[in-house]
C-alpha cells in the first residue's frame, strides 16, 4: 500500500520531511492504529 501511495504522490520535496506521507509519519501511525483496531476488536465488544 505504501508503494502505491509513494508512486501516486511522487517526490515533490525530497529535501524535506513530509510529516504526513514519509516513512514514520502520520500515515504510518494511521495504518498501525487501524491494524490494532482490527486485531483486537473481537476482545472488546461495545
UniProtKB/TrEMBL annotation:
Annotated signal sequence range? none
Q: Supply the EC number(s).
A: 2.7.7.42
Q: Name one GO biological process term.
A: regulation of glutamine family amino acid metabolic process
What name is this protein filed under?
Glutamate-ammonia-ligase adenylyltransferase
Supply the InterPro entries for this chain.
GlnE (IPR023057)
Q: Which GO terms describe its molecular function?
A: [glutamate-ammonia-ligase] adenylyltransferase activity; ligase activity
Q: Which keywords describe this protein according to UniProt?
A: Ligase, Nucleotidyltransferase, Transferase
> Which domain of life does the UniProt lineage start with?
Bacteria
Keyword Secreted set for record:
no
Q: Provide GO CC annotations from the record.
A: cytosol
Amino acid at each position: 500500500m505504501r508503494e502505491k501511495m509513494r508512486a501516486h504522490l511522487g517526490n515533490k520535496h525530497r529535501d524535506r520531511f513530509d510529516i504526513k506521507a514519509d516513512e514514520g509519519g502520520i500515515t504510518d501511525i494511521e495504518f498501525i492504529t487501524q491494524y490494532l483496531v482490527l486485531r483486537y476488536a473481537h476482545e472488546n465488544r461495545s
